[in-house]
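Aim 2, interim progress. The first record below pairs a target sequence with its structure tokens.
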Amino acid sequence: QVQLVESGGGSVQAGDSLRLSCAASGRTFSNYAVAWFRQAPGKERDFVAAINWGGDNTYLAGSVKGRFTISRDNAKNTVDLQMNNLKPEDTAVYYCAAVSIPSYYSDAKSYDFWGQGTQVTVSS
């Protein structure tokens, strides 16, 4: 089991930046691939970004490529999502998720462990 806690959400203006952090406890975090998903009101949970357990391979959704980056520090048991040039359509609850595999999935159903989410609101 691994426990995940997100932080760093907030309310910002379009064009601003936020850095979300996912802190893990429990099992050896370096044995888990981690992803960020987001869910806007009335919509499905969408994939945002993922990183493999070594931290040397990442994958970003097309809608955030060039604006968001994902990174991890296995010594600190954290995975961060740096979000730049935020847009109103980025408004959602952001969740981190983990699965005990070397690589990653973009399908939410493939992840076994989830955090409680953090709200990001971007106003125009």
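The second target in this work package is listed in the same format:
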Amino acid sequence: QLQLVESGGGLVQPGGSLTLSCVGSGFLFRSYAVGWFRQAPGKEREAVSSINYTGGSTYYADSVKGRFTISRDNAKNTVTLQMSGLKFADTAVYYCAAGPVHSLWPADFTSWGQGTQVTVSS
């Protein structure tokens, strides 16, 4: 059974850092692009970052460029999102997703995790 499990969310002060992890199982993880998306209360889901199947290509939303870094370890079926310089606006539920196409479009990602909450608050 295909499964994506996110972890690493939590409460952090503005300017702080968090690292999110997404572990895949039940499918050939290394053959899929993986993306991170987020959804804040009352807002639509938006793309954060994505990485292609080899890890050699990455995309970032303008709002997180220079603050977030995505990486993957296919030997561990894991994609990591390192977040620094966190802002109040980064508060959201963060989801990882896998799909055959490397993009920032949610529709290109066919399998989704359950999400992990990130709250930036003083």
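The chain is about 0% helix and 50% strand. This observation will shape the mutagenesis plan for the next reporting period.
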